[in-house]
């Protein structure tokens, strides 16, 4: 079965000022994939995410989302594309002055014409989806780090996005919370068919959820591995990918 | 650390502890000995070496590097194994020490950098101003994404919660104005004019300036810190990716609240300053209360009063813009929040003084 392309990255060069971080990258993320962007610390994973979400302009190249050029889009076009995206930031990035319900209601109020009653219902449903039913009136400062991430995910899912980006979802979580979050990501992918893009270097999560991936290498500023993480482990394209996927504990024969 | 040169062999003896070792003289003379004399071999003995830290590694690394450059043989077999391993690591890894000696900039380069910074800073500032005006436009059209609760919260924060500090400072300024004025006016037997001096001074400019300085330090700093922390916590990124205008959501409620409250606080400050002046006039200059009150009312001039209120309005705008601008453009670490706060307060005060100058010239031209 040929999968439909959702995100296409063409000749992308990322950097800051004169400094080039990653050069001439090309890859495709298909619809309903759980796509992992992995690599060592400082290789440019988070910068890649910033480019994919429109927070950073690339030095060269384009990001095409559903056939539309996201990088070169006008403000109105970009707004329409952004409507399809949900993002879970590393810290959750919940607005501290708002309750969880207000946080999740914000994108709904911005983009939909639902009544207050309908918004309340939706908020409560989204919180239930991430296992936070009953926490509507809590403030971000009153819940744990794992709960903040789940609440951030509920906000990211508020508008039923086609693509959800995750920035280091396991960072700062204990193994059980991390496993639960992985399970939640898979549930969302299976039940809603959402395309998931995860930036991470957590091997457990990579193998648990990823069905496609790229391995970024800061030294060569390029993609050193591209494919299913389990396949990459079985048939590593090079030493760097093998070392990364085995935590550097084994030498590639 | 001791060394001696015999024929063409330099004997270096390491003994005792080398913790935070700072015998600069010996080290410098050692490096010079290698460069000046015809040394062909360096023999390092470390029989008495006890405790050491990274400083010794750096010294030996520099020594070996110098020796390698001059093709001097090094015999360091006696060095402890872990020290030798660290030295090998220092040579084998392609390191890039980032703490370089700062490059001396020429005058032209400095002027160029300064000019570029000014142009870049100004264009960013003007764009921020333009965005803020657009948000106001959207507010008037009813399409701005501003939560009423944020506006009310800002109104409460910069409004009645600021009254105690504004009252105290304005009372003291009125008191000081009256006291300093009285000393001079007494010479001419004209202390009765203290009431007019305080009233005109407070209503025309001092009320607005003092309120502005207090609000810049209190509310402007709070705006920069709050928005800066939101930048650090990726909340601003989240807003942008949700397609919500940062200017509408964060700047507009704060700016509207300050523009509304500053003229009111200025009026209150004028009143409290006059009370402070009255305190000196009545208690120290023995001016009867009734007389002081009459003289103050006589000195109130509508144009002076309105100029003061206009100053308050402009200062409210300036403080809000500076606080929000530095908050939104804050870096992504804790240090930058502190820096943003400081910059916001300093910029607000500087711009308030500049605006006062412009308004004063305008008033002069218009004969107000």
Class inferred from helices and paired strands of chain B: alpha/beta
Q: How much strand content do the residues of chain B show? A: 5-15%
Q: What fraction of the residues of chain A are assigned to beta strands by DSSP? A: 15-25%
- Going across the major beta sheet of chain B, what is the strand order? 1-2-3-4
Give the helix/strand layout.
The complex is a heterodimer of chains A (253) and B (368).
Chain A: E1 5-16, E2 19-30, E3 34-39, H1 45-52, E4 60-65, E5 68-69, H2 75-82, E6 85-88, H3 100-111, H4 116-129, H5 145-156, E7 163-167, H6 175-192, E8 195-199, H7 203-209, E9 212-217, E10 222-226, H8 229-234, H9 239-245
Parallel strand pairs in A: 3-8, 3-9, 6-7, 7-8
Antiparallel strand pairs in A: 1-2, 1-4, 4-5, 9-10
Chain B: E1 2-6, E2 9-18, H1 24-36, E3 41-52, H2 54-69, E4 73-75, H3 81-92, H4 107-141, H5 148-158, H6 163-187, H7 194-232, H8 235-241, H9 246-283, H10 289-299, H11 302-328, H12 334-366
Helix pairs in contact in B: 1-2, 2-3, 4-9, 5-9, 6-7, 6-9, 7-9, 7-10, 7-11, 7-12, 9-10, 9-11, 11-12
What does this protein structure show overall?
The complex is a heterodimer of chains A (253) and B (368). Chain A is an alpha/beta fold and 253 residues long. Chain A is built from 9 helices and 10 strands. In chain A, the strands form 2 sheets. Chain A has a 6-stranded mixed β-sheet, sandwiched between helices. A 4-stranded antiparallel β-sheet of chain A has the order 2-1-4-5, covered by helices on one side. In chain A, a hairpin with a 2-residue loop joins strand 4 and strand 5 (68-69). In chain A, helix 3 packs across helix 4 and helix 4 (116-129) packs across helix 5 (145-156). The mean pLDDT of chain A is 88. Chain B has 368 residues and is an alpha/beta fold. Chain B folds into 2 domains: 2-92, Transcription Regulator spoIIAA; 146-366, no CATH class. Chain B is built from 12 helices and 4 strands. Chain B has helices spanning 24-36, 54-69, 81-92, 107-141, 148-158, 163-187, 194-232, 235-241, 246-283, 289-299, 302-328, 334-366, and strands at 2-6, 9-18, 41-52, 73-75. A 4-stranded mixed β-sheet of chain B has the order 1-2-3-4, with helices on one face. In chain B, helix 4 (107-141) crosses helix 9 (246-283), helix 6 runs antiparallel to helix 7 and helix 9 (246-283) crosses helix 11. The radius of gyration of chain B is 34 Å and the shape is elongated. Chains A and B meet through helix 3 of A and helix 8 of B.
């Amino acid at each position: 079965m040929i999968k439909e392309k959702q995100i296409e990255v063409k000749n992308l060069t990322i950097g800051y000022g004169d400094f080039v971080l990653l050069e001439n990258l090309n890859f495709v993320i298909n619809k309903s994939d759980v796509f992992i962007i992995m690599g060592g610390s400082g290789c440019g994973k988070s910068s890649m995410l910033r480019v994919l979400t429109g927070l950073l302009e690339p030095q060269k190249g384009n990001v095409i989302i559903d056939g539309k050029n996201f990088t070169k889009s006008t403000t109105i076009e970009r707004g329409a594309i952004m409507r399809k995206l949900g993002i879970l930031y590393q810290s959750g990035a919940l607005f501290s002055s708002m309750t969880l319900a207000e946080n999740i209601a914000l994108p709904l109020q911005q983009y939909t014409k639902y009544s207050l009653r309908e918004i309340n219902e939706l908020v409560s449903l989204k919180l239930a989806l991430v296992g936070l039913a009953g926490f509507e009136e809590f403030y971000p400062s009153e819940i744990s780090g794992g709960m903040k991430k789940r609440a951030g995910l509920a906000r990211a899912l508020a508008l039923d996005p086609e693509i959800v980006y995750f920035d280091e979802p396991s960072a700062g979580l204990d193994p059980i919370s991390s496993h639960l979050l992985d399970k939640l990501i898979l549930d969302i992918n299976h039940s809603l068919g959402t395309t998931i893009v995860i930036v991470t270097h957590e091997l457990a999560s990579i193998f648990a959820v990823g069905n496609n991936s790229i391995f970024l290498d800061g030294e060569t500023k390029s993609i050193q591995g591209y494919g299913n993480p389990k396949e990459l482990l079985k048939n590593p394209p090079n030493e760097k990918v093998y070392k990364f996927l085995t935590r550097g504990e084994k030498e590639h024969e | 650390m001791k060394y001696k040169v015999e024929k063409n062999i330099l004997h270096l003896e390491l003994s005792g502890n080398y913790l935070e070792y700072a015998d600069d003289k010996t080290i410098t003379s050692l490096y010079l000995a290698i460069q000046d004399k015809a040394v062909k071999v360096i023999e390092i003995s470390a029989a008495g070496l006890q405790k050491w830290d990274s400083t010794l590694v750096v010294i030996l690394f520099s020594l070996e590097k110098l020796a390698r450059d001059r093709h001097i043989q090094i015999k360091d077999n006696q060095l402890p194994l872990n020290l030798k391993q660290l030295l090998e690591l220092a040579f084998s890894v392609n390191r890039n020490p980032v703490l370089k000696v700062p490059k001396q900039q020429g005058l032209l380069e400095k002027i160029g950098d300064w000019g570029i910074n000014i142009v870049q800073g100004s264009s960013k500032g003007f764009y921020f101003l333009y965005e803020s005006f657009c948000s106001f436009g959207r507010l008037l059209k009813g399409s701005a994404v501003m939560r009423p609760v944020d506006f009310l919260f800002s109104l409460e924060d910069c409004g009645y919660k600021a009254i105690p500090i504004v009252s105290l400072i304005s009372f003291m300024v009125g008191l000081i104005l009256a006291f300093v004025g009285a000393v001079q006016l007494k010479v001419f037997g004209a202390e009765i004019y203290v009431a007019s001096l305080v009233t005109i001074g407070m209503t025309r400019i001092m009320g607005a300036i003092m309120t502005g300085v207090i609000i810049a330090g209190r509310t402007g700093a709070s705006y920069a810190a709050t928005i800066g922390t939101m930048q650090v916590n990726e909340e601003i990124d989240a807003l942008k990716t949700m397609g919500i205008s940062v200017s509408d959501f964060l700047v507009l409620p704060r700016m509207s609240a300050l523009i509304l409250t500053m003229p009111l606080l200025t009026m209150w400050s004028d009143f409290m300053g006059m009370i402070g002046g009255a305190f000196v006039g009545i208690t120290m200059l023995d001016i009867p209360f009734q007389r002081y009150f009459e003289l103050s009312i006589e000195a109130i001039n509508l144009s002076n009063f309105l100029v003061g209120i206009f100053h308050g309005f402009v200062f409210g705008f300036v403080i809000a813009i500076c606080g929000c601008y530095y908050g939104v453009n804050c870096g992504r670490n804790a240090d930058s929040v502190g820096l943003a706060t400081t910059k916001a307060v300093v910029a607000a005060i500087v711009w308030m003084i500049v605006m006062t100058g412009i308004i004063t010239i305008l008033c002069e031209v218009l004969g107000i």
